């Protein structure tokens, strides 16, 4: 359940939350796990940013970005240069926010693999959730690689995928992948909503867990007996870290009842 300033009695005024935000709130609030928040603003920021992660995943799915392994990665040279390791390094003097937006508006100039796609989605969601000037300040030397390497995302690891909700990153593992097809060893996906996930790898798009597993299973060793599966680990940004950078112009009018107190913004 959600615990806010010491109570779980939380009621939002009509129109305060979008349908998707309300769905996220209800799943966390109905959970046996306690989720503690120090303020209404922090809670609302997380609900909002999770919807931006979902929206960014959907936008990338229709952007025209290609799937490619690290050796065949492509990026718009107006904003990025690709290092020997296949990383995207922001050009000196380039605007971080414009560089991220270009991936979504000029997708055919880009190609990368599935973990890079997750990183791009998360950066776009952060950009859409905080003051863009703060985004530029925080990412002046932006380097995009895999999600294990991006400390600026302040990722939090969790165990127990039954608790995963919209905006969480989940990994599907293919333990008996054919050794000649290492790019099928697994898939990073963004949870869109209950039962739907976005995977960039191999043109998966937005689909179900069953379809992801079925596709991965096609590329196992002959005679293999262990199916691909959704791992129990999931990841999301530290929403509390980013909340103070939201910017007053992005805060909407809200009314929340917390216990016996009314909070209006």
Automatic annotation (TrEMBL):
Keyword terms of this UniProt record: Sporulation, Transferase
One matching Pfam family: TGL
Under InterPro entries, the record lists:
Gln_gamma-glutamylTfrase_bac
Protein's name according to its UniProt entry: Protein-glutamine gamma-glutamyltransferase
